[in-house]
Amino acid sequence: MKKTRKTETPVRSMAGESRRLCLNLTPSAAADTDALPALLAEAKAQGFTTVMLTCAWYLCERAPLRYAFRYYDRRIAMIRDAGMDVILHVDLRRTTHIFDGERVCTDTVITTDEFFRGDKAQKPADSAEDEVICISLASGKATGCAVRFFRDAVKHFCDTFGDCIYAVLPTFSPEGNSEYPADAMDVSLSMLRAYRNDLPLSYRTTAELNHDLHTHFPAFGAAELPSADDRGPAGMLYYRCRHELLLDFIERLAGAKRLAAPWVRFAVRFGSVTDASAANRCTYAFGALGACADLVIIGEGREQDIAFTADYAASTFAYPGSMTRFGLSGVAAETAGEAVCAERIMTAYRHNAALVCLDSIREDNGITRAADAYLRAQAPFCVSENVREGQPLAMSLGKLFETGDGLYYTDYYKLYTDNGVSFGRVTAVDDLTACILPNSIAAKRQAQAKSAKTPSLFAKVFGSRAGGENGTAAKAAIAAAALVIAVGAAAYLLQSDDD
């Protein structure tokens, strides 16, 4: 039975969405049961409306289908009693241990072959404790087990706490994002098989593949994974393969959420979507990855331009008919000054962010007072419509992948929007995940389609389906040709009679 609780009417923007200020409750803070009520009371007093609580798969399911949720039940109950909602962050990583330089599986749910294996050398463990590690998104077994646990966890918490659960957020990277790790590439056997199986979908023969990649693979099954710094055709093919795996996993998680608790929002979180490491994280095309989500959270560091990222996300998701809202996390760094943090938070709200997530409560509550004042405004400014106006700033995803530099677009955006004061529309040109290499199947189909759409000279003149002026010209040409043929035939007959 879905349980509900009475809540205050949320303050809504002109677009109809409620603004939220979220506190990311770290595992260490959540573990201190005695201090947690006071921390939550302070957060509520400073204007926080929502708390993000991390639920770890490897802690809840130590044996297949045997769950331990009581630890998190107590903490969600405390958050509910404090008068705030919960974003349930489900960390979908597992555990292994490194012994004598080799990774040894200590997991009873999935096997060693189902884990993410980075392309960088792994140091031996310094302790006997297990290491939390990512699963391989190319592994059907690992992703299947993750989807099953996510479904069961969502159903348990949503059935128990009802409307207290504002959204559920599955993540599976060390950074706590819904993407690949930022510092390594997956070189597991599962990923190698997925890459090799994907190549025949792009090329008819290995000769055509080798021509585009400048390689000498004797067969598709002999192809090797490109290096992490490959920004050429092979790197693009590998990116596209990983992008499809990531997209499929996110969509399966969204489907599991719909089965377990259709009324709860499904959220995803990505790191910066324009920096160099986004190539490893595979999130340049974040618009496609977040299409099935109700809330997309983008993490931005202190060096990032909040206005640019917010307008980019608003252009992608905040349009008429879209149910997706976006939020920003990491907008206030511990080392930044109070005024800088406050301005970045307010900039996020002004540029249509529905949620801002902070990682801590600062001693000076000037930041949250400012944000709270904006949350309680009668008619906070919304740019859902304004951001769609004007000539868009088009970003090439292929160029971002090749150069790993989004600063070019950021600098142009500052000029385009008067240094971020006005709002600008930023659109993505997906020439990366939809890249068409010269000898690929897609390129040949495109050439055939173009050839079919381009009529021959005979078709232009004599095409029977031509209409309008072209049709009139075609009919006149046909009549003239018929007259010439008739005159020629008559002359030939006359000449034959004379002979």
Helix content: 40-55%
Give the overall shape, derived from the CA principal axes: globular
Q: Report the structural category.
A: alpha/beta
Please outline the major beta sheet.
8 strands, parallel, barrel
Rg over C-alpha atoms, rounded to the nearest angstrom: 29 Å
The CA-CA distance between the termini, in Å, is: 106 Å
Approximate strand percentage: 5-15%
Count all strands and give the number: 15
Please identify the oligomeric state: single chain
**Poorly predicted tracts of residues:** 1-16, 123-128, 378-386, 464-469
SS field, number of helical segments: 18
Strand order, largest beta sheet = 1-2-5-9-10-11-12-13
**Chain-averaged pLDDT:** 80
Q: Main traits of this protein?
A:
499 residues, alpha/beta, eight-stranded parallel beta barrel, three-stranded antiparallel β-sheet, 15 strands, 42% helix, disordered N terminus
Topology:
Blueprint: E1 20-25, H1 27-31, H2 36-45, E2 50-56, H3 57-60, E3 61-63, E4 66-67, H4 70-81, E5 85-91, E6 94-99, E7 102-105, E8 131-133, H5 140-161, E9 165-171, H6 189-198, H7 206-213, H8 233-260, E10 265-270, H9 278-281, H10 286-289, E11 295-299, H11 306-317, E12 325-329, H12 338-350, E13 355-358, H13 366-375, E14 393-396, H14 397-403, H15 407-416, E15 426-429, H16 441-453, H17 457-462, H18 468-498
Parallel strand pairs: 1-2, 1-13, 2-5, 5-9, 9-10, 10-11, 11-12, 12-13, 14-15
Antiparallel strand pairs: 3-4, 6-7, 6-8
